[in-house]
Amino acid sequence: MKLAQDQSLTLVAGGAGFIGSHLCAELLARGKRVVCLDNLQTARPTNLRLLEDHPNFEFVEGDIVNALPVDITSRAGQFERIYNLACAASPPQYQADPEHTMLTCVVGTDHLLRLAETSGARFLLTSTSEVYGDPEVHPQPENYRGWVNCTGPRACYDEGKRAAEAMAFDFARMGRADVRVARIFNTYGPHMHPDDGRVVSNLVCQALSGRDITIYGDGSQTRSFCYVSDMVEGLIALMEGDLDGSEPVNLGNPEELTVTELLEAILQIVDRPVTVTHLPLPTDDPRRRRPDISRAEAQLGWRPRTPLSVGLARTCAWFAEEIAGGDVQDPVTVPVAAE
Amino acid sequence: MKLAQDQSLTLVAGGAGFIGSHLCAELLARGKRVVCLDNLQTARPTNLRLLEDHPNFEFVEGDIVNALPVDITSRAGQFERIYNLACAASPPQYQADPEHTMLTCVVGTDHLLRLAETSGARFLLTSTSEVYGDPEVHPQPENYRGWVNCTGPRACYDEGKRAAEAMAFDFARMGRADVRVARIFNTYGPHMHPDDGRVVSNLVCQALSGRDITIYGDGSQTRSFCYVSDMVEGLIALMEGDLDGSEPVNLGNPEELTVTELLEAILQIVDRPVTVTHLPLPTDDPRRRRPDISRAEAQLGWRPRTPLSVGLARTCAWFAEEIAGGDVQDPVTVPVAAE
Hints:
2 copies of one chain form a homodimer.
Chain A: E1 9-13, H1 18-29, E2 34-38, H2 45-49, E3 57-61, H3 70-73, E4 79-84, H4 91-96, H5 98-119, E5 122-128, H6 155-173, E6 178-184, E7 187-188, H7 199-209, E8 213-216, E9 222-224, E10 226-227, H8 228-240, E11 249-251, E12 256-258, H9 259-269, E13 276-279, H10 294-300, H11 308-325
Parallel strand pairs in A: 1-2, 1-4, 2-3, 4-5, 5-6, 6-11, 7-10, 8-13
Antiparallel strand pairs in A: 9-12
Helix pairs in contact in A: 1-8, 5-6, 7-9, 7-11
Subcellular location (chains A, B): Golgi apparatus membrane; Golgi apparatus, Golgi stack membrane
Cofactor (chains A, B): NAD(+)
Main location (chains A, B): Golgi
């Protein structure tokens, strides 16, 4: 499907990924014409299947590390909003080719910022709680500068996103583009990869398949999980909000729980006996992670609304269907690292 | 001068700059054949004049942000050492085009790392004490993760260098290149730009020309100044040392003094009455900066040897000559005390 040449468009880079596919769906539901640009590196085919027949949806395959496809640049004048969600986001995926991860963050973001400049479009960068590293301040407000190891195996992503933020705010300071920067904390829901090593998908898939449950460390490390529909609402609110855009905004759920508590919540839904195996914590794994979302609440009137039990039930149901449908081959044979 | 096609070469990217030109001279003095790659963005013409007639020196003009010149790539097999000193390094210079600064750090370093991979050359990245930001730990050891504002006006450089370090260590982890990373602290000496806003060149030039002396803040912020010949020795020792290269190494002078004390030391050499004007501190200006060089001492047997009084006398003498020779646009010349 190729969208008409005379209408304003929203570009979603990384729109075939986990959060990106939900964002595309919500934008379509709100009547937007959406062009999805994705290299299909970590996207699941099913994510796009739900969108590709929509009359206001167009898919363009391309990697933002390279020059943008002519299908994008030839319509620069039509874009009024550009969302950048393009980057592998789980450690096993982004560490498989760290050079590509860094270039996606820096060169890819630069290409999209230049497109925003040419188009006069507003640009939203999805940054990450990883910019805070293994934080010494808890919860993390946006002005906390982080505790990131810039020489370690997570640096390609953490430092890549920090560099992408630097570029975005430089474009804003130079008057080249109107930018918004979201720092996304742990998000979960349907369309997650079963085998990308994230703790929610790991535990849900292991519980559903009756295999041993893998916990890294003693399970006392904490995370805060935001259901994906809440995250998408936050991203759109940030993009459309009446802000000056000169500061990043945390988006996430401030409800903090340990990995062990997460497992217990999953086992209340997937009611079956399990065996838990403990493995060593990966290098630079954050011990605690929880957003201070007071800026998002004050400036966007946004906060997550979906209770963990509801979000987990939807997620378990979706994974169960995927496993039944054969889209999930074997959720537990891939070596994983915790988020 | 084009060097022969059958000899091993050392590449110095940024070799026409302040530290780079001294490095090229020292490598030539040690019998190396040196190819200098520089975009002449911040290089002074006089820096190259001293080198260009040397039979073992070749200059190639090019910007590492772009694909490397054929004059470089066609001789990939000859390079056995690659030094990357290419980046504007003073705030007014690197902030003039922050996008280019970031891309120089990330894309430029990537191009040179790929060349090192192809060549089988050892690669040295000159990183910076700026990766520590405005440090809360003093002095700064290499395992201090820093206090960097990734959204501010210095981030294009600070985060660019952090990202470049991340890339270098990823190349090392992946077995793609043998890398060394130096974190350079404040360095001074001949070949500095008179107008790049660095405190030593500012104060020396202002004192020599009899202009008002500009101090940012109250002058109580501290710096540690390493004379350039000491720095060059440290860089070569790091490149040639028997290390595993898996960790960055601080290079700098741990002798800490306030900006006011620096001014007093300069005025002992340039003996004339001055008027001091105080201006506000720039955004994110570090309050203190001093290297912990115990790693360099233990692993390289290196430490700075040039006393401040000696280094400053040489620097003042050089700037006085530059001013007299018309290379520095300032008519005022004054006698300078001997070393």
